[in-house]
Amino acid sequence: MRFVVPLLAVLVAAPAFADTTVTYQPQGYTLNVTDKQSGVARSTVDAMVATFFTIYPQESRDFNPNASKTVNIVLDPAYDGVAATANATETYGASYMISHPTDTDTVTHESMHIVQDYGSQNIPGWMVEGIADYARYRYGVNNAAAGWSLGNYQSGQNYTDSYRVTARFLVWVEEHYPGAVQRFDAALRGRSYSANTWNQVTGASVDTQWARYTQNPGI
Questions:
Q1: Lower CB count within 10 Å: N or C terminus of the chain?
Q2: Model-level pTM?
Q3: How far apart are CA 212 and CA 153, in angstroms?
Q4: pLDDT tens column, 165-191
């Protein structure tokens, strides 16, 4: 069964989920939310929907205006991970969302993967996940309540560690070379990214920039 409701329903009341799909269509976007009898609290689902409509237009505007205008969120009790995204569909593990109800900025990270739209090319996974966590840091609306942060640089880390480690490095790079992350993202989506992209964007290799970062990692 499918329902179409205004975004206002997120803040007031929407039909209870029981293997139903609820469709929200404000701001020129369509968000289909399917709950497979997951047991995730209504308040958590509402927060995920509200987060999407706060951050996705911003991520799309800043990185990829051609990103999909239709996105699907699936709450799946059969998925035992945190979240995964493919083909404009974000799947969330019910167990994780039940035990971490404030971690709704997982939506910010996963939605950025839709914006990235890099295809199946052979590209560095650490850049993919690093940029997604960079987006969570930049656009997230509930990170503090979830206890999520980039943390501090620790000796022994490497830019290839991915996720928050790479994201923190990218924040530093962006502060020193404004617009760099958008240029990396565009090169990845445009199939032109290579090791030399770092020289083109920042004037030095990624290894050189990482060495500079480790000497002065403040952000």
A1: N
A2: 0.90
A3: 13
A4: 999 999 999 999 999 999 999 999 999
